[in-house]
């Protein structure tokens, strides 16, 4: 039987990521892994593509993982895990294995949104029984904060430095969660460490479903976001409350928003806590702040409309502009 | 922690011992140290849940002392601590004082 989702009960379980890993002080990624592994009540085999998490948990023949874990190259975590899963199925068929094992990939946004995208897309299309988790910190933090397609508009990184020429990243971030949902896979979700029980419920739901699953989890990085050491959880909470990082799940194409803030906070409250957006608050960049807020509002309104459409079972009305 | 020579490494550099990173103590990274004030603690266990370094020990569902061998002093526990009647159960103190 599954462990009840209470911290008292969960704390009796062994955490399957060990101390002594070399992630930075106050990093969000180990919190993501810790919560996912606490939620999973099955034996798990994991795989990570190159990234902060992979490098720092496995330095020179020491590992922080207490589960079987494979390090793959930057672009092929999904392909590696597909192979392992196929081998498992074969062994099971031959009667050499009886355990019910689950497969989870933990990859950063660089190894998911950009470099690992083709192998991820392929694995999802082939329908391997695995859960792919992207911990999204919004840039290539491991190699020194280079922009990725997960970097938000206007953020300062070393490859799109804010200065007199450009005001940080000039493009919008890619909505990967939606792209994965459009693969037509049975389960896609977006979660945040600040809403731990929501995150764990999603992980459990995903593990019960057979087939390819994808979860995108926000993982604040105080080095890259230029924020304080102690605010990983607080920033996640702000991201959720400003609807920068809406929490929802898409099950068989039907969307359900799992958290609606009582009062939607202005995006500025999330942006002003981070040094990577500091330049946005100077007068000449006011338009960028306005545009960011408009993008967030439009995205949130669209999510609400999509959910209402699922609940009402009615197709959205077409407007003249659509025709 | 002693680094292994090439003759001691397994083929394919496969690591056979799970969780062996515990041999590396990250506590020396700390600039600020969290201090637990037991009388203000309501045993909500948020500190245990949010600690990125698994440096808070819990026994039978009750919080125990910090594991200073691994705590990197990020302060997430202190920020997230709800405390009792407005008094935090975890405060950060500068190391070396």
- CATH-derived architecture of chain A: 3-Layer(aba) Sandwich
At the fourth level of CATH, the homologous superfamily of chain A is Thiamin diphosphate (ThDP)-binding fold, Pyr/PP domains
Nearest-angstrom radius of gyration of chain B? 17 Å
Please name the CATH topology of chain A: Rossmann fold
Mean pLDDT over all positions of chain A: 94
**Quaternary class:** heterodimer
The first-to-last residue Cα distance of chain A is 52 Å
Chain pair forming the biggest interface: A-B, 44 and 45 residues
Q: In angstroms, what separates the terminal alpha carbons of chain B?
A: 28 Å
CATH architecture of chain B: 2-Layer Sandwich
CATH topology label of chain B: Alpha-Beta Plaits
What sort of overall outline of chain B do the alpha carbons produce when their principal axes are compared?
Answer: elongated
- Portion in beta strands of chain A: 5-15%
Secondary-structure element string of chain B? EHEEHE
Helix content of chain A: 25-40%
Unreliable stretches covering 5 or more consecutive residues of chain A: none
Domain module count of chain B: 1
Nearest-angstrom radius of gyration of chain A?
A: 20 Å
Instruction: Please state how the strands of the largest beta sheet of chain B are arranged side by side.
Output: 1-4
Give the overall shape of chain A, derived from the CA principal axes.
globular
Strand content of chain B: 15-25%
């Amino acid at each position: 039987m599954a462990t009840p989702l209470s911290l008292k009960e969960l704390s009796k379980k062994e955490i399957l990521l060990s101390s002594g890993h070399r992630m930075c002080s106050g990093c969000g990624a180990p919190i993501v892994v810790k919560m996912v592994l606490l939620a999973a009540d099955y034996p798990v085999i994991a795989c990570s593509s190159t990234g902060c998490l992979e490098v720092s948990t496995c330095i020179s023949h020491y590992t922080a993982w207490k589960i079987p874990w494979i390090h793959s190259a930057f672009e092929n975590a999904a392909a590696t895990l597909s192979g392992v899963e196929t081998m498992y199925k074969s062994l099971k068929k031959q009667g050499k294995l009886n355990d019910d094992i689950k497969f989870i990939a933990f990859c950063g946004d660089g190894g998911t949104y950009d470099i690992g995208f083709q192998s991820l897309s392929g694995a999802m299309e082939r329908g391997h029984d695995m859960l792919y988790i992207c911990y999204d910190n919004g840039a290539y933090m491991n190699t020194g904060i280079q922009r990725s397609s997960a970097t938000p508009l206007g953020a300062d990184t070393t490859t799109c430095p804010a200065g007199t020429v450009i005001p940080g990243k000039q493009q919008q971030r890619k909505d990967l969660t939606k792209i994965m949902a459009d693969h037509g896979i049975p389960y896609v979700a977006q979660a945040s460490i600040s809403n731990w029980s929501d995150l764990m419920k999603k992980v459990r739901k995903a593990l019960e479903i057979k087939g390819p699953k994808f979860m995108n989890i926000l993982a604040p990085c105080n080095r890259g976001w230029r924020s304080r050491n102690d605010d990983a959880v607080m920033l996640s909470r702000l991201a959720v409350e400003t609807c920068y990082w809406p929490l929802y799940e898409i099950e068989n194409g039907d969307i359900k928003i799992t958290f609606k803030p009582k009062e939607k906070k202005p995006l500025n409250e999330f942006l002003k806590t981070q040094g990577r957006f500091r330049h946005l608050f100077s007068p000449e960049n006011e338009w960028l702040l306005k545009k960011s807020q408009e993008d967030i509002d439009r995205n949130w309104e669209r999510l609400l409309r999509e959910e209402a459409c699922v609940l009402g079972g009615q197709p959205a009305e077409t407007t003249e502009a659509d025709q | 922690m002693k680094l292994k020579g090439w003759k001691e490494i397994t083929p394919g550099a496969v690591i056979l011992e799970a969780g062996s990173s515990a041999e590396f103590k990250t506590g020396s990274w700390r600039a600020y140290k969290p201090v637990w004030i037991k009388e203000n603690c309501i045993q909500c266990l948020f500190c245990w849940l949010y600690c990125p370094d698994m440096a808070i020990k819990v026994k039978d569902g009750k919080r125990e002392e910090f594991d200073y061998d691994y705590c990197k002093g990020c302060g997430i526990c202190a920020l997230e601590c709800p405390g009792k009647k407005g008094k935090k159960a975890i405060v950060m103190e500068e190391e070396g004082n």
